[in-house]
């Protein structure tokens, strides 16, 4: 396996993966900081109401983000283009769901940044894949 991505689409995946992994680590180490970044107000003095499972949710979602980030980086280093292609529609779906969560009032407006990050990343990855596909077709014809 290489130490750096070998294609523009691989670089888009690597950047996304590193950012996701860093956010996951932040959530595991400093959950209140992650809440603040996402636009949620941490509980004052870390006092939570009985039955508030926010810490458990943050642990689970942060671990998922860390794992996902590592998967993305490994896929980027292996230049696994099928994986890159699979992520595009699902990242666009994530963008849609997170945007609708803000519009419907289920999430604070700062959470829109997460949706836009997903959507923009999907579009950039999709564009890189399209450009690489066109270049590959030109090379095979000529």
Q: Could you describe the 3D structure shown?
A:
The protein is mostly helical and 142 residues long. Helix content is 75%, strand content 0%. Helix 1 (8-29) packs across helix 2. The chain is elongated.
Q: What layout of secondary structure does this protein have?
A:
Layout: H1 8-29, H2 31-37, H3 54-77, H4 81-103, H5 112-141
What is the structure about, briefly put?
The protein is mainly α and 142 residues long.
Instruction: Characterize the main sheet.
Output: none
Shape: elongated
Task: Classify the helix fraction into a percent range.
Answer: over 70%
β-strand percent reads under 5%
Low-confidence stretches are none
Q: How many distinct helices?
A: 5
> How do the helices and strands follow one another from N- to C-terminus?
HHHHH
User: Which structural category do the helix and sheet elements fall into?
Assistant: mainly alpha
Number of strands: 0
Mean of residue pLDDT? 93
Tell me the distance between the termini: 30 Å
Radius of gyration: 18 Å
């Amino acid at each position: 396996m290489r130490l750096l991505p070998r294609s523009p689409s691989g670089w888009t995946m690597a950047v996304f993966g590193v950012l996701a992994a860093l956010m996951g680590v932040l959530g595991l180490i400093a959950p209140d900081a992650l809440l603040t970044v996402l636009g949620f107000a941490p509980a004052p003095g870390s006092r939570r109401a009985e039955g508030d499972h926010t810490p458990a949710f943050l642990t689970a979602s942060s671990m998922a983000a860390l794992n996902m980030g590592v998967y993305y980086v490994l896929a980027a280093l292996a230049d696994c283009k099928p994986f890159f292609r699979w992520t595009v529609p699902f990242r666009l779906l994530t963008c849609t769901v997170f945007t609708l969560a803000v519009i419907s009032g289920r999430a604070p407006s700062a959470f829109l940044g997460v949706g836009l990050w997903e959507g923009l990343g999907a579009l950039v990855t999709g564009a890189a894949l399209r450009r690489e596909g066109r270049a590959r077709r030109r090379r095979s014809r000529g």
